[in-house]
């Protein structure tokens, strides 16, 4: 579900970027009016259309992906997805009753944090000679699950750090355009000639900051929440693993009985 949401967001952003490029090519911006009319016509959308380029597309695409990741985490990062109370209570009852087949069937059908850890512990308990090996398998599974949940929010950290860098690249590009126009006029360019490049530079910086600040803020929130939920899930899983009796790890399938010998001893004949 999460991958589908992100893929849909990427496809939608690409289509929007292509449509915006086609619209800009078909409708070039009209020259800015003079006087008070220019002040009235100026706005965020007009600045966006005038500054639209590859850097703007990348920043808008990053914003769409960040929103998709935020909504995906809003749906997934919940206590009921990591440590459902009903599952923990049911596993505790089954383990206390020694119903190991039911425990295996229950964790095999569930994909939550606790179920995955218990699945690894039960798998190790069937082959491990001691309890330490079972604990090690459970700890390894818990570490893997914690990393898997942290990766759900890590993309926000990447986007938040790349946003200002892309904005800085757009800023440099805008300043290059401004100085290029200044050089083409032999140093006699007026404010109107420099305005496009300077507005591009500052607008790209603004877009990069508008992308980075919310992404890093939400990433910090989800990182703290995931850390808290993973710790609770780890404690609950450790409690269930400790309930596994030592005899479970030593249990083996009964050895097959030796087959009866095909040769039967000769029966002595009477009078021999």
Topology:
Blueprint: H1 2-26, H2 36-41, H3 44-50, H4 54-76, H5 79-82, H6 85-97, H7 100-108, H8 113-125, H9 131-184, H10 191-242, H11 246-250
Describe the structure.
It contains eleven helices and no strands. It is mainly alpha-helical and 272 residues long. The chain has one domain. The chain is rod-shaped, with a radius of gyration of 33 Å. 27% of the residues are buried.
Précis, in short:
This protein is mostly helical. The protein contains eleven helices and no strands.
Q: What proportion of the residues form beta strands (DSSP E)?
A: under 5%
Mean pLDDT: 74
Derived structural class: mainly alpha
User: Residue share in helices?
Assistant: over 70%
Low-pLDDT segments: 17-41, 249-256
Shape: rod-shaped
Q: Determine the N-to-C terminus distance.
A: 86 Å
The Cα radius of gyration reads 33 Å
**Number of separate domains:** 1
- The helix tally amounts to 11
Listing every helix as H and every strand as E from the N terminus to the C terminus, the arrangement reads HHHHHHHHHHH
Number of strands: 0
User: How would a crystallographer describe the biggest sheet?
Assistant: none
């Amino acid at each position: 579900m999460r991958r589908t949401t992100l893929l849909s967001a990427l496809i939608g952003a690409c289509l929007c970027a292509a449509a915006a490029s086609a619209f800009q090519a078909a409708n070039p911006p009209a020259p800015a009016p003079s006087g008070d009319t220019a002040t009235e016509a100026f706005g965020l959308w007009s600045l966006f259309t005038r500054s639209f380029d590859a850097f703007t597309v990348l920043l808008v695409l990053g914003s769409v992906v960040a929103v998709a990741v935020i909504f995906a985490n809003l749906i997934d990062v919940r206590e009921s997805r990591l440590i459902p109370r009903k599952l923990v209570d049911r596993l505790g009852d089954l383990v206390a009753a020694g119903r190991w087949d039911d425990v295996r069937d229950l964790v095999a059908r569930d994909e939550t944090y606790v179920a995955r850890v218990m699945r690894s512990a039960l798998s190790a308990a069937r082959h491990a000679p001691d309890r330490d090996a079972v604990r090690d398998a459970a700890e390894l599974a818990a570490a893997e699950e914690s990393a898997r949940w942290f990766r759900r929010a890590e993309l926000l950290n990447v986007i938040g750090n790349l946003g200002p860098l892309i904005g800085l690249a757009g800023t440099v590009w805008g300043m290059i355009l401004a100085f290029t126009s200044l050089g083409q006029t032999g140093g006699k360019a007026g404010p109107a000639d420099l305005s496009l490049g300077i507005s591009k530079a500052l607008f790209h910086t603004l877009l990069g900051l508008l992308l980075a600040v919310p992404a890093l803020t939400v990433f910090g929130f989800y990182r703290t929440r995931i850390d808290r939920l993973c710790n609770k899930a780890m404690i609950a899983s450790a409690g269930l693993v400790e309930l596994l009796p030592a005899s479970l790890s030593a249990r083996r399938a009964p050895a097959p009985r030796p087959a009866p010998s095909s040769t039967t001893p000769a029966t002595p004949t009477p009078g021999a």
